[in-house]
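Q: I'm writing up a methods section and want to include an example of the input and output format. Could you take the sequence below and give the corresponding predicted structure tokens, formatted cleanly so I can copy it straight into the document?
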Amino acid sequence: MAALGQAQAEATKLAQQAGIAHAQANGHRVYLGRKPTYNREQLGRILDLLATQSDITIAKQVGLDRLAVRRIRQDPAKAEAALVAWESLKARPRRRQAA
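A: Here is the clean output for your methods example:
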């Protein structure tokens, strides 16, 4: 029975990955990944402090987890792109679903 559950979970994961790939290939911006835990002000402060302070010190000053600071340090462009994507999502009006 556990093997059946595992097979079902793997099939679901593959179907989800296929759906995401299809949406991205067709230019849909449906899947944006996880919402950033930081806002634009926090990102700016982090980028200013990266050259002079450690991740732990920055995390305490900004009020974020040190792993979030580490991810921003590793790829600042990706962090900026995530913010832009989620901000553009908020700017779009929501469609109402038919009842």
